[in-house]
Amino acid sequence: MTTPSWKDVLPTPPPGGRLHEAWMTSFEQPDAGLLVEHLLPSLLGASHSLSQEVQERTMFFGELGTALEALHGRLTVISSPPRAAREDSQYPWLWCYVSHFIVGAAARAVQHAKLWAFHWKVDDKEHLELHVSSTNLTASAFKGQLQAGWQVTLPLGDRTTQSTRQTWGDLVPFLESLGASAGEVAATRVQRLITLLGRVECPADVTFVASIPGQGSAARQLKQFEPSELHVLTPTIGEWKDRTLSAWSADVGVVPGKIHLKWISEKHPWAATSGWTLSTAASEKLESNGVQLECLPIEARFTEQHRDGDPRWSHAKLYLLRSRRKRWLLVTSANWSVAAWGAGKTSPRNFELGVVFESEWTDLEALGEPFDSPDTIPFCVDRADDEQPNSALEWAEASWDGKRIELRARSSDLDTPITTLVTFTGSSEESISLVDGAAAIPWKDPEHTPISARFTQGAETLEVAVVDLRPPAEFAQTPLPEVDPAVAKALREAFLLQRYGGPVVDPESIPGLGGGHRPPTVGAPAADYSVQAWLDARAAFNVVDQWRAALAEAVIEPVLLKRVRLDGEELRALYARREGPAAGLVVEELGWRLDEEA
């Protein structure tokens, strides 16, 4: 059993760990500024920070760019289709490194789940870290909102088995459906996560609850806990009708009179935000069916560390299920709506994900008193009908393998033609019309990489980032982002050595960044030549040993193997330019290993 604790939402590597792959989902479009300036540096354990000072700024982007290049093809974000035109980003290059997919490839869908999964390598061990929360990949989610989440880190076994994978229950079919909805490339990426789930059993005290668009009501998954009472805290309440509320209550096994909705009054500070929404019609419908609306006190605190005067509003989605002897807490992405849950024969429209676990936490149950007009009145706001018309242009994807830009789209309007405008680095553009939902543009220019594709059908548009699928050798031609080309080569080599156990990068050693032009050598003054030569040789062969270990690990992953072999080629070229016997031996050793693995 557990009670909530207060923590920073930014994930960090385990001690001595390095990120091997990451999967993240969001409802809102991922914020490039958040990822570049905060989330990715934290995940990567970056030692440099974004600064206005030229040297530190260059080191920050050099470290970030080389780390992202090494992870190319293993950073995946899946979101809902954008509801408006993409905003101009300060870092449009990010989506060459991070693959961003949207759902809707097979049928209309909303991606509302907030799942983060990180595959860590710590020495010769591997770990899987999972987060299930209410947190979008936006700056406002991190800075302006309170979130609820669940997190676990588990050691991975050596083998994957079907029986182990089955312990994860509804998480696996959720992931399979999510991947399929985001397209073939995304499905392949998500399958790698599913494979990892077969290497470690789900914690015995946790049950996953998932909504999949078009499938059965997810509310039925709560019935197994035999709740007699339900307490709900979510910032968005759907447009409940008599029929859907009755069906949802039957799915869960709790009568409407035993459902307690924690809500804010018109005087609550959160009413001044646009985050909490309950229509007057829905409020009246809930009350007429017996649902108990209870007023959240302004001074309500979720943990002891939740300080007074905190200006952030709650974006958390919490459901406390009370049975005769136990309390179960559901931490989820799902607001209380038919779109999120489904109800009876009505299927959910959203991808949602949550976890249920036994909890001693009773604060949610105790929070709130019945509304007492005129002192406390439920905060209600009129909004557009849930059934407002949807765009016929439901899904699109653009990808580039270094030779061709592949364009795909799906629309419920089969008659109106679809055109696509591709934008490249340097602001050049190419336009093409789709035939049967697909088109291709030949493109081999690594200096002007395709950045985005805007699909237009009549008055409707859908803009997506181009997914970069180039093999490692071709992707390595991509200029380091935000870095002066005059220092980029030296930075690449310095961070390459550091990644394989070489010296920590010293900006003073980089010509043009602070250091003078000092040709790298593996040598020393004559007086102490033998000692220094031995130290240099030892350091150089430590780099070789770590590269060999990485090569052995990558054998089962073809794309990663190409990446590590490319690193070996670059290390060999680097040492070939150095002087001294140790450098020559390293070149021979690397050459022999590369030829052996060819």
Automatic annotation (TrEMBL):
| UniProt binding sites for substrate | K317
Q: Where is this site: Interaction with DNA?
A: S337
MF terms in GO: phosphoric diester hydrolase activity
| InterPro entries reported for this sequence | Tdp1 (IPR010347)
Query: Which residues carry out catalysis?
Result: H315 (proton donor/acceptor)
Q: Where is the signal peptide?
A: none
Q: Which GO terms describe its biological process?
A: DNA repair
Q: What is this protein called?
A: Tyrosyl-DNA phosphodiesterase
